[in-house]
Amino acid sequence: QEYLEFRKERSRMLLSRRNQLLLEFSFWNEPQPRQGPNIYELRTYKLKPGTMQEWGNNWARAIKYRQENQEAVGGFFSQIGELYVVHHLWAYRDLQSREETRNAAWRKRGWDENVYYTVPLIRTMESRIMIPLKISPLQ
């Protein structure tokens, strides 16, 4: 019932909508329920056509730099809808821990190399900070 009320309220605020069918990268952890409180960062990368395999190969090596604090929630790529779109979902206690975790990755030997090889593959990128609803298994 609460969800139905939320949907009704949301529809009054919704200006547009688009759908994608996503697949998860095989090298990334499968999303699991989390205890909170957490905030989530959804990073979206629109890649140059023809670069998905190169992106995936680089991230298969790079994900190890971002596993220490269990912040990696999921990595997905578009299969239907706008193509060559990648989404990375990260969990953090708060914005301060996000900053600390991201800075720590830069201090690890090899992270800069991953960024060096993947940045030229990107057309656009976006970051959104999200707070989970009470009904979400990702708290």
From TrEMBL:
- Domain of life according to the entry: Eukaryota
The record's Gene Ontology cellular component field reads: mitochondrion
Return the InterPro entries for the record: Dimeric_a/b-barrel, NIPSNAP, NipSnap_domain
Example GO BP: mitophagy
List membrane-spanning regions: none
For this protein, the record's Pfam families field holds:
NIPSNAP
Q: Which residue ranges does the record assign to the NIPSNAP domain? A: 40-137
Stated family: Belongs to the NipSnap family.
Record's protein name: NIPS1 protein
Q: Which organism is it from?
A: Pomatostomus ruficeps
Q: Which gene encodes it?
A: Nipsnap1
